[in-house]
From TrEMBL:
Keyword flag Secreted: no
Lineage: superkingdom: Bacteria
Protein name (record): Glycosyl transferase family 1
Keywords: Glycosyltransferase, Transferase
Chain ranges of the Glycosyl transferase family domain: 197-342
MF GO annotations: glycosyltransferase activity
One of the Pfam families matching this protein, by short name: Glycos_transf_1
Protein family according to the UniProt entry: Belongs to the glycosyltransferase group 1 family. Glycosyltransferase 4 subfamily.
InterPro entries, A to Z: Glyco_trans_1 (IPR001296), Glyco_trans_4-like_N (IPR028098)
PROSITE patterns listed in its UniProt record: PROKAR_LIPOPROTEIN (PS51257)
Amino acid sequence: MRVLLGIHHPLDPNMGAPGVTLALGQALAAQGCQVDYFSYDDAYPGLRHHTTLHELRFPWKLTAHLLREAERYDVLDITTGDAWPWMRLGRPGARARHALVTRSHGLEHTFSERLRADARAGHLTLSWKYPLYHGGYRLWEVRQSLLRADHAVLLNTQDAAYAAERLGVPAHRMSVVPHGLEVAFHGLPPPAPGAPGAPLRVACVGSWLALKGRAEMVDAATRLQAEGVSFTLTLYGTGNPEAEVLAAFPAGARERVRVVPRYERAELPRLLRDEEVLFFPSHSEGFGMALVESMASGLVPVSTPVGVAPQVVRDGQTGRLVPMGDVDAQVAALRSLAEDRARLLVLRGAAQAAVKDMTWRDIAARTLRLYEQLLRSPRTI
């Protein structure tokens, strides 16, 4: 089977959606598929920095490519919002028997609603330009892709429910398929107990953004320090300079905080080896790869119910689910883990066990079965 994976990003293995696209492609190739890619690297060769204008033009770049090359592929698996012009043209050049899958790495509509809610609450300021493209035209493009594709793949049940109820996508033309864990996160040693009296070692993994819960990170650290809880907080992958991030914390809590602005993806298991808790107060996630990677590394999550969290974090069993923006609940959960280290160790082991079977091999096998089913079924669109 010949498959084209299309994505509106450069194919950088250290980036979120591109990294999982490459991982899926490699896993499909291991299943016997011939996999090609079409990304910003192909649409804009030699260009290292991309803007909204490049994103706006990408569906038309992809359409030009498909006009020339679509007949080579059994399956076209393209990110949402990108293949709609070609579909509206009637899929010229495609094989008589083919399947077009549109793949969401986090539904833009649910993300936009969360972004607007945070703006109304005063957590961030949206540019006047936002409704013109990302908060307007781009949402229309994504809906067109979802309605016109043979099948849609989404990352979580919340996005699937929104697509069905609010966008009119038939439930039978959608599947929720999670990401897999890279090989580096398989077979990691079970968590070891911390030294008696040692600080609770807390990690946050993700960009230093309002939507990732940075205000809650600051407030929680401030409250824990004021309440006399012994802890350390390390922020991995902020993307911002250390001094800028540390300046957001009050002086009393700042000495407990460490910042790792960037890291290579392959380094994460080593970086998390000495951590105990993942604090994940995110407001919006398509999936939340950092969550499952941290759980595989033996960290117990204290997470908001975003992305994949409701599927893998069972409150009180594999971690703690806390309401979005509820600093009182978040601090209480962290403090309880600091005060009951025996319970902490049990939860860490349960968290690791909960994600151990999330392999790219299994995800590729599931994806291949979906492709085969679509190729056997008559198109109804």
